[in-house]
């Protein structure tokens, strides 16, 4: 830092009262010269101060920009593992599990506790403490204390329902049956089949029937939204189920975390691997769990790592296919049950004409038909509404929502 320059001495005018007018003029002349000199010195100092001010202004701008960048820069997530001594913390970075001893600012040192989730920068310095982990939990998991889906709401999956009840409901409701015979109930049930065929419904209905809490976690979200937190969230998922027992854990799109291993060593893959290892280890410790059952679902059975299918893990595989004609009729009836459908609408006919539709697509067809009747200011839904709905859905068939396009029955 440069100090402010000292001011030059102020020139004084010394005139001898006895001096002649010429001498007086000379003195005034000299004085004027001295004043000019001081003026120049002051001007130089002023220039110097101006340029210093300019430098400082630039410095302030630079710091402001840096501050902005710091505020908006991406930070990594970590957990406080230990607080060994005043002002220091051992933190473990999520994703690569690297442990680092880092110095804390006095403000953070006061409030940080072991187990806190924190955001750290490139130099591992803790930038802020994140709100309670339950936030991530709440976002990553859907908890439904009392789901309302009933077995009767599910159309055409009688055999699948029987198997799910045997593998999930019986061990929860009649554990003594298994004890008496001396067999372990199946550990995990894996439902596999195309999208929208009722896999989630099956899991919710069995939770409803057994008065269990339904806890859903989507594998795709674990890898997309909660990067670096996957394995921790899987641990949390099982912990939460323990607290809420009886509980049914439903892992949707399990293929996202349990796909066949690839040779690639990218960190994303490593992270997914860790999440899967955590899931496997939770399942292996499953025997000691009380009333917690686990159901997973996938549309990509072919992609699953065989490790996940070993005995003691997902060892009950249940295929949930697209509904056959009879099932389609039942599903249409279920979804139209509350609707005012004209007598002329023949669901057997409609079921025949909707070959290849999933349960979810049939549900949309019914709702859309109802919308067409409303638009036409009618109180009853007619066959033509179903046809219009069909055409609309086929037109939207390329939409992501439905994935595959609708099969065509209107020529
Ligand atoms: N068998 C069915 N009986 C009645 N309704 C069904 C059936 N299958 C699907 N549906 C309807 O489709 C909706 C979506 O079904 P669900 O979420 O259970 O499918 P999913 O197989 O889990 O799909 P995804 O694989 O896309 O998660 C349900 O809420 C229901 O309205």
TrEMBL record:
Domain text: Consists of three main regions, an N-terminal coiled-coil domain that may assist in substrate recognition, an interdomain involved in PAN hexamerization, and a C-terminal ATPase domain of the AAA type.
Gene3D superfamilies: 1.10.8.60, Nucleic acid-binding proteins, P-loop containing nucleotide triphosphate hydrolases
Name of the protein: Proteasome-activating nucleotidase
GO BP field: proteasomal protein catabolic process; protein unfolding
Binding site residues for ATP: 196-201, 335
Annotated ranges, domain AAA+ ATPase: 185-324
Compartments reported by the entry: Cytoplasm
Organism: Halobacterium litoreum
Entries under NCBIfam families matching the protein: PRK03992.1, PrtsmActNtasePan2
InterPro entries, per database record: 26S_Proteasome_ATPase, AAA+_ATPase, AAA_lid_3, ATPase_AAA_core, ATPase_AAA_CS, NA-bd_OB-fold, Nucleotidase_PAN, P-loop_NTPase
Any matching Pfam family: AAA_lid_3
Its biological purpose: ATPase which is responsible for recognizing, binding, unfolding and translocation of substrate proteins into the archaeal 20S proteasome core particle. Is essential for opening the gate of the 20S proteasome via an interaction with its C-terminus, thereby allowing substrate entry and access to the site of proteolysis. Thus, the C-termini of the proteasomal ATPase function like a 'key in a lock' to induce gate opening and therefore regulate proteolysis.
Lineage of producing organism: Archaea, Methanobacteriati, Methanobacteriota, Stenosarchaea group, Halobacteria
Coarse class of the protein's main subcellular location: cytoplasm
Family classification: Belongs to the AAA ATPase family.
Superkingdom in the source lineage: Archaea
Parts forming coiled coils: 32-73
